[in-house]
Amino acid sequence: MIRRKLIAGNWKMHGLTRDLSFLGEIGPAAPGCDILVCPPATLLASFASTARGSGVLTGAQDCHSAESGAHTGDLSAQMLADAGASHVIVGHSERRSDHGETDSIVRAKAEAALKAGLTPILCVGETRAEREAGRAESVVAAQLAGSWPAKDGETIIAYEPVWAIGTGLTACVQDIAVMHGFIRSLIVDGSRRRILYGGSVKPDNARDILALEDVDGALVGGASLDAASFRAIIAAAV
Ligand code: PGA
Fold first, then answer.
1. I want to staple 196 with a disulfide (CB 3.0 to 4.6 A). Which of 29, 43, 86, 217 is the partner?
2. What pTM did the predictor assign?
């Protein structure tokens, strides 16, 4: 089973119009590897139109579960697709903690994404305390059971240990390998699903992480803001 690698950048709450120059700086799309950038929603349409033809895909960072309605400040999956997104991150740990998103909310978002023709990138991951208590696998299993969409379609998983996000700490390759194998064994059609690792992926650790058999790419936060770093991580994937 050949699973194409995916290097996805998550800009979080960073990025202004002037940062669209990023697209010219990351270089040509690498054969054998998909590249996705998830800018803030304000840049989605302009990023997608600038990226057209470059091979770089555009994704959103979140969506609402409803198709439309009285939800001030929210964006539906259909709106994101209309703006040019092909993917959307759902259930990122910052959404789970900042906005109280539960597994069932995340599942509804993933289902809304699939319905709108978007590929959801479903994030799961344990906290430091949960790992230290030996509960990493049971926490991730429960998140997957609670948030996996009940709708067919391409769903990408991102395993992001919460304690590794934005901290400069990464899980050791052995723990990543074990968790990715575990996730693959749990999900429907596991052998064809892409499972990304996220949490302080940098140019200097990307090669070892991306070489693992069950790691099909990376979800990159901080290092995706710098074109040279992001380019180096893409280079490590191919
Ligand atoms: P980080 O973020 O690479 O800055 O740790 C990863 C993420 O939150 O997706």
1. 217
2. 0.97
